[in-house]
UniProtKB/TrEMBL annotation:
PANTHER family linked: AGMATINE DEIMINASE-RELATED
Entry's EC annotation: 3.5.3.12
Matches recorded under SUPFAM superfamilies: Pentein
Gene3D superfamilies: L-arginine/glycine Amidinotransferase, Chain A (3.75.10.10)
Pfam families: PAD_porph (PF04371)
Keyword annotations: Hydrolase
Example GO molecular function: agmatine deiminase activity
Membrane-spanning intervals of the chain: none
GO-annotated biological processes: putrescine biosynthetic process
Protein name: Agmatine deiminase
EC class name: hydrolase
Lineage, uppermost ranks: Bacteria, Bacillati, Bacillota, Bacilli, Lactobacillales
Record InterPro entries: Peptidyl-Arg-deiminase_porph
């Protein structure tokens, strides 16, 4: 995060209970977002932004079901992660 924030704006999902600890490591280098999640991995629920030929940005609103939903999913409580997606 420190390296990326040197050249890019970084947004970090941090629940309120962990905000002061995150700030003690990163200070004002990032934008902190108080958004609850069910799992630490943002790779599968984080934003996907597309840029067209006119340099216009479009965000994709994915659905997330913990890789299988209530029956075959990796974990059951994935509602917060679906909101992030």
């Amino acid at each position: 995060i420190n390296t990326i924030s040197e050249g890019e704006k970084v947004y970090l999902l941090v629940e309120r209970d962990h905000l002061s600890e995150a700030k003690s490591y990163l200070g004002d280098k990032v934008v902190y977002l108080d958004i609850p999640t069910n799992d630490a991995w943002a790779r599968d629920t984080g934003p996907t932004i597309l840029v067209n030929d006119k340099r216009e940005k479009l965000a994709i609103d994915w659905s997330f079901n913990a890789w299988g939903g209530d029956v075959d999913g990796l974990y059951r409580d994935y509602e917060d992660d679906d909101q992030v997606a």
